[in-house]
Predict the 3D structure of the following.
Amino acid sequence: MQLARVVGTVVATVKSPGLEGVKLLVIQPLDRSLRPVGSELVAADAVHMAGPGELVYFVAAREASQAMPDPFVPVDHAIVGIVDAVSSLPGEEP
Amino acid sequence: MKLGRVVGTVVSTINYPSFDDRTLLLCDLIDPSGTPAGGYVIAIDTVGAGAGETVLILDEGNSARQILRAPGAPIRTLVVGIVDAITEASPGEPL
């Protein structure tokens, strides 16, 4: 799992069966110092509560579709939690 | 499995139900000599690992769900061991 910031939403009317009602968000993956790393990607929102600007963590690959109501959907990134705090342990600050 | 060092924790109240009551550890990936290999993962703790410890990270979904006895959970990455020592042999040298 990795940290990311929600930066936008995606609306798609025509999509693969099973994706109806799944909220799609644009996320920017972050490093552990919360700096952007890599390119933005589209993730399904499995917590139904993530919104723009929020810090989240997401799961990739097969596990992303496990977070969907129907686990056999074409989803490869899913937001599985909204982050309240990221704490660095003493001596391990980035 | 991968080697990592525990560098922090991630706290979350709104999460997918499979993550309820689980500890999320922020782990830097390291190479066998202990230097950061670049990148990090958020992993679920199964062994009680703490600050600064070198840990063994499992990054495969089926094994992770089997260990947690959580079939169907969107979980892939676990901390499954605390490393005491790593020995690197020279090429040709018996271990």
